[in-house]
Amino acid sequence: MSRKLFPLVLSIAALSAAPAFAQDHAHVADHAAASVAAEATEAATIVDAFHAALQSGDTAGALNFLAPDVMIFEGGGAERSREEYASHHLGSDAAFSAATEASVTRRSGWASGDVAWIVSEGRTTGQFNGRAVNLLTTETMVLKRGPEGWRIQHIHWSSRTPR
User: Fold this and answer.
1) Residues 20, 25, 28, 30: what is their CA dihedral angle, to the nearest 10 degrees?
2) Vertex 145 angle, CA 140 and 151, to 5°
3) 3-state secondary structure of 44
4) CA distances (Å), 30 to each of 26, 33, 35, 103, 110, in order?
5) How far is the C-alpha of 96 from the C-alpha of 73, rounded, in Å?
6) What DSSP element (H or E) covers 85?
7) Nearest to 113 by CA among 17, 4, 34
8) Closest CA to 151 of 140, 138, 137, 141
9) For residues 74 and 118, what is the distance between their CA atoms, to the nearest angstrom?
10) d(Cα 93, Cα 57) in Å, to the nearest integer?
11) Can you give the pLDDT of all 163 residues of the chain as single tens digits?
C-alpha cells in the first residue's frame, strides 16, 4: 500500500471501528479489562513486548517494534520517525518505564487485514526523578503487518492525574 493511501485506509478503519469501540466501552464499564479480537492478539503481543523492552532498558529492542516511519503523539508534540524518537524521547521513556509501575486496566483491539489498533487504559505509579507519579493513562497504537510481522505505525499517549 502506498504511503499516500495509508492515512486514508487508517481513517476509514478507525471510523468503521468507532461504533464497536463505543459499544465495547459501554459494555466493559464495570469490568477490569475489555477484549482484544482474536485477529488482533498478535498485534497486542507486540504492544506488550514494546513496553517490556522499554521497562527493561532494551531501547534497541523497543525500536525494533516500531515502523521506520512511526508517528508518535504525546503531550501535544509529535515525533515523525523511529530515528527521531530514538534521538529524543526513547531514553527518557525507558528510564520512566523502569522507575514506575504501569498496569493496564482496560484494553480493546481490532484488526482488519494488515492493520490493527490496540487501545489501552491504565494507571502508572511510582517515583521518577524524585517525584511521586500517579497517572491515569490512555494509549492508542496502530500497527501494520508487513514481511517482518506487526510493527507499530502510530502511538498516541495521554495521561492525567486522578481526580
Assistant:
1) -160
2) 55
3) helix
4) 9, 9, 13, 17, 21
5) 17
6) helix 82-88
7) 17
8) 141
9) 16
10) 9
11) 444 433 333 333 333 333 333 333 333 333 346 799 999 999 999 999 999 999 999 999 999 999 999 999 999 999 999 999 999 999 999 999 999 999 999 999 999 999 999 999 999 999 999 999 999 999 999 999 999 999 999 999 999 999 9
Please list the helix, strand and coil fractions of the chain in percent, rounded to the nearest 5, in that order: 40, 40, 20
Do residues 81 and 69 touch, judged by C-beta distance below 8 A? yes
Provide the pLDDT for residue 33.
61
What pTM value is reported for the model?
0.80
| CB neighbour list of residue 90: distance below 8 Å, 6 or more residues apart | 59, 62, 63
Residues paired with 10 in a beta bridge: none
CB 91 within 8 A of CB 59: yes
- CA neighbours within 13 Å on the CB side: how many for 65? 24
Q: Which grid coordinates are listed for 152? A: 507499530
CA distances from 103 to 1, 21, 41, 75 (A): 35, 21, 18, 20
